[in-house]
Amino acid sequence: MIVTDVSRFQAVLLNLVLNARDAMAKKGSISIEVRRLAADGQDWVEISVSDDGVGMDKETLSRAFDPFFTTKAPGRGNGLGLSQVRTFVEYNKGEFEIDSAPNKGTTIWLRLPAAS
Ligand SMILES: Nc1ncnc2c1ncn2[C@@H]1O[C@H](COP(=O)(O)OP(=O)(O)O)[C@@H](O)[C@H]1O
Ligand SMILES: [Mg+2]
Known about the structure:
Strand order of the largest sheet: 1-2-4-3
Structural class: alpha+beta
Bound molecules: adenosine-5'-diphosphate, magnesium ion
Helix content: 25-40%
CATH class: Alpha Beta
Number of helices: 3
CATH topology: Heat Shock Protein 90
Number of strands: 4
Largest sheet: 4 strands, antiparallel
Strand content: 25-35%
Mean pLDDT: 96
Shape: globular
Radius of gyration: 14 Å
């Protein structure tokens, strides 16, 4: 369990899943995993979203979390999805991590403090 704003959390999860969908041409798989872990003297809930889509090159990856950065066609993306993810994680005193490579896919992990 985590203590957070549920509607913001839903928006974050939806953003990540929509990005995963957009990274796939026609088919592929998206995994959402949740686990509990202990690190740095506290309990965390880790949520990860993975896809096996196109992935990102280093240039895209370095800017992916910037507000208004998008590689999508006009009207298809506003570049605010990942910046909202970052804001959400920071506001909730959590951490995030990303791993992505061209043609390999993308995984994003969110770690949020577990409720006591
Ligand atoms: N799962 C993903 N696979 C490949 N590229 C991604 C993925 N998620 C995000 N990106 C890249 O990061 C950019 C920014 O993502 P985001 O902030 O959600 O904005 P938007 O989806 O509106 O473009 C995307 O345009 C895309 O280039
Ligand atoms: Mg997006």
